Amino acid sequence: ELESDANQTGALMAAAARLSIRESYAVYRLLQQAREAGDEAAVIGKADTLLRTRGRAMPLVVPVLAQLVEKNKATSDVAALLATNPPWRPSFFSALPQNITDARTPLYLLLGLQGTDHPPSEREIASYVAFLLSRNFPELAYYAWLQFLPPEQFARLSPLNNGGFEVSPSGAPFDWSLAQGSGATSEVRGLPGHESGQALFVEFTQGRAEFPGVSQTTLLGPGTYTLTGKYRGTLAGTRGLVWGVKCVAGPVVAQTDLLRGDVPMWRDFSVSVTIPPTGCRAQ
Question: What are the pLDDT digits (tens) for 149-179?
């Protein structure tokens, strides 16, 4: 290499890689050589070898695969490799959004995995949707999330998803996220004394509590809505709980009265929600 003999360097690198796939520098050199020659199959093969044998190669390899995928011709080949569920796949999908020029690129790959023996995982989908929301693509995020919903959940879709807590929350952006805090817990479980039906249970210990809340992202268009619900329980203290609607990176547009005191029987609550025509694409 120091003597600028490209042919001999390539031959020796290939020999080193044949002797051991853990000769990572040689494998990476062959990947670059295949890339320059336009041999996409060889690029994908060498990328797989590197990612299986040298986890730290991820920052070097993902940009190369991302560039191939965005050329479209290699999408099916990369998807075919991902469909074998290589051990590096979760890390690849986490790193991919930072190495693309088209926000739809990961979606093409995730859709290509549908119907395979290893379809997209909830983690992979949620990571991509969260990326889109962080980059202010709420409409694309919602569209992507819809593509992977089970048919029974798709049939129950409403402006507020899973509003009755019928399904255990997945933690995905367009489903409930139950964050745990200090001195407070929240969970969804069956209603006592009922054969069916679930509810959100929030419990506090004695003393000061830090409760991060329960939330989900919605995609309400401009207009007026009504948020309704039922609650019961006992909450002693000067502070209470509220349900609120806030524009993402914007103001609070609605908030219920404080829910507190001793409420042994179910009590209704409601609040009018007005989404402005601008500045509130997601809530």
Answer: 888 888 888 899 999 998 888 888 899 999 8
Q: What is the Cα 68 distance to its own chain's centre? A: 23
Per-residue pLDDT at 72: 67
Where the chain has pLDDT below 70, the residues are: 72-74
Buried b (16+ CB within 10 A) or exposed e, 141-175: bbebbeebbeeebeeeeeebbbeebebebbebbbb
Task: Report how far residue 153's alpha carbon sits from residue 143's, in angstroms, rounded to the nearest whole number.
Answer: 15
Rounded to an integer, what distance in angstroms lies between the CA atom of residue 246 and that of residue 275?
Answer: 9
Predicted TM-score (pTM) of the model is 0.83
Angle between helices 24-37 and 58-70 (to 10 degrees): 20
Say how far apart CA 239 and CA 259 lie, in whole Å.
9
- How far is the C-alpha of 245 from the C-alpha of 253, rounded, in Å? 6
Using CA atoms of 239, 244, 246, 248 in order, give the dihedral in degrees to the nearest 10. 90
61 C-beta neighbours (distance < 10 Å), count: 23
Q: Using CA atoms, how far apart are residues 122 and 129, in angstroms rounded to an integer?
A: 10
Residue 280 makes CB contacts below 8 A (sequence gap 6+) with 220, 222, 247, 248, 250, 253
CA 94 to chain CA centroid, nearest Å: 9
Cα atoms in the Cβ-side hemisphere of radius 13 Å centred on 43: 23
